[in-house]
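pasting for ref. prot 1 ->
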Amino acid sequence: MPPAVPSKTPDLRPPQSADPLCLQQITRTYAGKTPIEVLRGIDLRVRAGELVSLMGPSGCGKSTLLHIAGLLEPPTSGEVWIAGQPGHSLGITGRAALRRGHIGFVFQAHHLLAEYTALENIILPQRIAGTAPRPARARAADLLAQVGLADRADHLPSDLSGGEQQRVAIARAMACDPDLLLADEPTGNLDEKTGWIAFEALADLVRGGKTGLLIVTHNPEIGRCGDRSVTLSGGLIAPNPS
C-alpha cells in the first residue's frame, strides 16, 4: 500500500517567483466503478534554465503528470502555474493561449509534418504565433544550426534519419522561445548513440536560458544528467536518493 498523504488544506496561493512551472497539490483520480487515484498531491517546481528528469516505473502516472503540466489534461484538484500564471483555473481558450505562448512539447514520436522541410516545420509554429516571415525563418535557421542540422534545412522528414527528425522536433519545440519545455521519452525510439545526440541537443538549447525542462525518461543515465531527478511512485513524488 502507498503511504498515506497527510491531511492538510492545500495552499494554492500564487508562487513568489514566476518560475516556468509550479505544480501545487496536484491530484488526479479517474472515475469509474472503482476510482483510480493516480496522483495524490504533487508539488513540483522547475526553474528557468533547469533540467528536471521525471522517473518511475511504467504506469505510475508520469505521462499523466506531464499532460497536466502542459495543460492538456485537467487535474482533479490543485493548480498549475506557468510562468507565474494560473493554468487549471482558466477556461479552454485561456489554457490554449497560455500553452501556445509559454509551453513547448517534445514527444517520443517526432510528429513532423511530412510535406514541409525541416526549416518549414520550425517556421510554421512561429507564423501561427504571429511572427513575421523573415525573423521566423532566421530563428528556424539558427535553431537548426544549434542542433547540428544547418545542412539539412531543405530536406523533408522522409529524407532525414530518426535522430535527425527528433532533433528537428526539438528545435521546433523551442521555436517560439517557450518558458517551459516538456519532453515525454524523447529518446525512446532511438538507439543509444542517436538518443544521446538528441538529448544533448535538447539540453544545450535549455541550459543557461529562460526555458525550464521537465523530461520523462526511463533511461537512468539521462536521468542523472539533469540538474535534478525526481521519482514518481505511489502517486507521490520525491527527490531520488543520492
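and prot 2 ->
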Amino acid sequence: MAGGPVLELVDVVKSYPGVQALRAVSLDLHAGEVHALVGENGAGKSTIVKILGGVIRPDGGFVRLAGVETALAGPLRARQAGIAVIHQELSLLPEMSIAQNLVLGREELVGRFGLISPSKRRRVARDMLARLGLTYDPNRLVGTLPVSEQQLIEIARALSENAKVILMDEPTA
C-alpha cells in the first residue's frame, strides 16, 4: 500500500513470571487493511492487543505510530493516538440505550448545563450507526442485543471517534 504503516510493533518482548508471552514480535498495519491474529490459547494474541491498546507495556521493543516511536502509556493515550480496542469483555452498559452508550464519554457533545439533549443523542447515534449501515432504534437497550450485535455498537463508537486502527480481541466470542 502507498505510504508507510499506520501502526508498527517492532521486536516487542513481553514476559510474565514463568512465561515468555512475546518474543521479538513485529507487525505492520497499513490503512485499509484487515488482519487476523490466529493461534492457540497462550500464543500472545491478547497480549499484543493489550500492548497496542496501552493496557500493558512491553518489556522490550517499541511501538511506532505513523513512523514515530511512541509509548502508549495507558488506554487514554492509545485512544488519543487513534487506536480503538474492543475487548473480549465489552465496555457497553447493558441497562442503557444504544444512544446513551454511543455518546458516553463524548464531552464535545455536551451542551448547556452539562447534558446532551435526548434528541441530539438520538440524532448523533443514528449517524454513528448509519456509517455501518445499521438501523437500530437508538432507544433500544443494549442488553437486549445479542453479543455479536453489541460488538457492532462498539465498532460504531470506535468509528465515531475517528480511530485509525480498530483492534478486536476475540471478536468471535
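The mean pLDDT is 86.
The chain is about 25% helix and 20% strand.
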